[in-house]
Amino acid sequence: MNKIYVIGIGPGAYEQMTVKAAEALKECEVIVGYTVYVDLLREHFGEKEFLTTPMRQEVKRCEMAFLEAAKGRKTAMVCSGDAGIYGMAGLMYEIGEKYPDVELEIIPGVTAAIGGAAVLGAPMSHDCCLISLSDLLTPWETIEKRVKAAAEADFVICLYNPSSKKRGTYLNQACTLMLQYKPEDTVCGIVRNIARDGEEMEILTLEELKETPVDMFSTVFVGNQDTKVIGGKMVTPRGYRYERD
To answer: Where are the alpha helices (DSSP H) in the chain?
Structure first.
């Protein structure tokens, strides 16, 4: 049976790709993906054939991968971060129903929540959730409900796709919703360009976050009531009980 590897390549740097992902890419003849993500791989896999599409052509991209695999070619569909978290794995399974002779193998990767958390310190050490602020595929009304519910439950919240040119106010709106349930001084963090050139982090309060500009290469973390700053790092205690001297 022909196979497609659906591979999460991590946040950007080759060093943060899993060994299994790198080995699978070495075996493949064709690598299919969104142009920006494929460009991250060319330096290390320059001998491969690359097939790309721009944003919003996800279905076409999946079809391209299945057509290549159907020819008997070893094929990879790559996604940034993890293929199953805001990635292509789900869509590949849906479209794959038309290609019963092509097997899918999902290879996990380091998603932005994990990569960004490591830069900030330990912001997600307790119950947490991921919410995308992009309304391209999810109605904003639904996003609002999820943000409010997560804030009311005092989850640590990791926000993906916090802003873009067309959605410049969405993070501000999300912060306004969270401030109904979380204090203004809730510890928050931003990591920009995770594992890429220009990587930087910032720790600030929820009230400050509300007015802070971000972009699509930013990942935002909002702490819970116990999150604090230790040595310049954002830390959410796990809740272990221990004796203090």
So the answer is: 19-27, 35-39, 58-70, 89-96, 112-120, 140-152, 170-178, 206-210
